[in-house]
Amino acid sequence: MTTTLESPAPPPAAASAPPRPRRARRGARELLGGAAVQLLLWGYAAVALAPLLLMLISSLRPEAELRQDPLGLPVRPALENYTTAWTQANFSGYFMNSVVVTVSSILLGTSVSVLAAYALARFRFFGDALLTAFFMAGLMIPIRLGVVPVFYLLDNLGLLDSQLGLICVYAASGVPFSVFVLTAFFRQLPVELEEAARIDGAGEFRVFGRIMLPLVRPALATVMLFQFIDLWNDFFFPLVLVDREHYTLPVGLTTFFTEYGLNQSLLYAGLVITTAPLVVLFLIATRQIMTGLTAGIGR
Amino acid sequence: MVRAEQVVAEERAAAGPRSGGRARASGGGRAKGRPPGRRPPVALLAAFILPALALYTVFIIYPLFSALQYSLFTWEGTRQAGFAGLDNFTRLFSGVYAERFWRAFGHNGLFFLGTMAVQTTLGLAFAVLLHRSRFGKRFLQTAYTLPYLVSPIVVGYLWSLMLSPQFGAVNEALRAVGLDALAQPWTGDPQLALPTLILVNTWQWIGFPMLLFSAALAGIPEEYAEAARTDGASGARVFWHVTLPLLLPAIGIVSVLTFIGNMNVLDLVYAMQGSQGAPAGATDVLGLLFYRTAFQNPDLNAIGQSSALAVVMFVFIFGVSIVATRVLRRAEERLR
């Protein structure tokens, strides 16, 4: 900032008389402006973080305390809300369903995508460009609008009200994005690598699994991370496609809120349980998430 | 959710022969950086491609075409009763369906305009301010982006708890600082409900335009602004005449993504205002209307009717996105 302030070339003629007071005044204004900017930036940081903090704090307070003073701190951290939510309100079940469905969907979706991406990036065949375009078309499709046919499709396959049905839909929904990112990564790898391996007698799948796959690990992590966020948070497909026994956390929350609507501290605990795994993930992979969000812009 | 890469990819896919020509001229080969590639045996190719192709076709593409087919039939429960032509569509735009449709459509429009006015503007402002400040930049960016991780359902419930008129933290805080007059029934007042939703949605998503604009700003060479300043331009002039035009592509992408996101909004409204878009439909949006038409509809023809709505929404959202991306790309090429 200081360099840019001083960079305007000093006007040679008028340089003698006015510059000193002017620069001082400008410096003061600049300082004041800078303070206002910092105030705004940190003020909004408070706005962004306060609700999440309040959610955590309120989940640790007994209901009676919360009613009296919604903004107070916990006198002594109470974990009852969590045990009640976990056992009585069936959050243990929702949590397990979420873990099983999310993890399986990511594994299935990413596995098929990485195979297809490899072929699309490294092989030449009839209709390869068309096939790439076909996969890319899925990037902008609002897939929820197909939910009624999906419902009857799963019904016909006997997959309605099952985790497997949900997993298939979720895995498929991640394919366009994963294929897109992974294809781009595979294309960047030098051809010499696989050629050398093949000369050494490695088969097609060996080249793929031993040589190429490890090289796209960062891309795999990005792809899986974003699928995790999307799928863990989704509530629409479980709402429509599975019964209560198979509800994931976000849908579980909807029944939880109608049943325990009057017990606010308990509700807060439910919200924290749903959110905690994502926050943990975020703390582990902040950098990857922040850069992944803006991939393709700038540079 | 739709991310930046997706639109960029779509842009490239939609670019067609023109940008293909550009790529050939500059890079050689069909796609930039693409190795020559080998012609593999069919069985091998199938082993690599078929799993993804099957999964994607069966669960994503086929249902969309089915929806189109469903919309052209009259349904009796789950049985197709006969070809209906465009009857489902005309019914969608007449009588009580039309009333609900246009009301929800209007709310989506307001949602988009409100989000553009608040979220995009603030996101740009934060990006510009953060671009120049060093102190705590990483922390601030992370803080702004953190709500993006949280499920829209959680965000909706969290804010409805906080905005509750009696026990909510927001009104309590307002009263604590003597702003009792501002303590409103935020989600219960038909006038306030939609703006409240827009603000809550902004709270969740602001990190996204902020990060996109930050990345775009980082890609602008510092020399441009410096040159303008050397010529005596003030900070505001530099922003309006140098920085902002260079940000136009990013603004375009953010607008398209905001449009897609806002047109599909459902979870947040469902959590805060229920499936009817309370109070009295003041926050009803197309996503909710579609959900109710499909799954909470006593009409025997629910499938036909909801499929027609799905087709209309699909054509509108997809169509506008494609056209907007093309127009933006043209404008960008002209600027260059």
UniProtKB/TrEMBL annotation, chain A:
Pfam families: BPD_transp_1. This is Carbohydrate ABC transporter membrane protein 2 (CUT1 family). It is a multi-pass membrane protein. GO terms for biological process: transmembrane transport. It is found in: Cell membrane. Residues 1-25 are annotated as: Disordered. GO terms for cellular component: plasma membrane. The chain crosses the membrane at residues 31-57, 94-118, 130-152, 164-186, 207-229, 266-285. Keywords: Cell membrane, Membrane, Transmembrane, Transmembrane helix, Transport.
From TrEMBL, chain B:
GO terms for cellular component: plasma membrane. It is a multi-pass membrane protein. Residues 1-37 are annotated as: Disordered. GO terms for biological process: transmembrane transport. Keywords: Cell membrane, Membrane, Transmembrane, Transmembrane helix, Transport. Residues 14-25 have a biased composition (Low complexity). Residues 105-324 form the ABC transmembrane type-1 domain. It is found in: Cell membrane. InterPro entries: MetI-like, MetI-like_sf, UgpAE/MalFG_permease. It holds the Pfam family BPD_transp_1. The chain crosses the membrane at residues 42-65, 110-130, 142-162, 192-217, 238-260, 308-328. PROSITE patterns: ABC_TM1 (PS50928). Coiled coil: none annotated. Belongs to the binding-protein-dependent transport system permease family. This is Carbohydrate ABC transporter membrane protein 1 (CUT1 family).
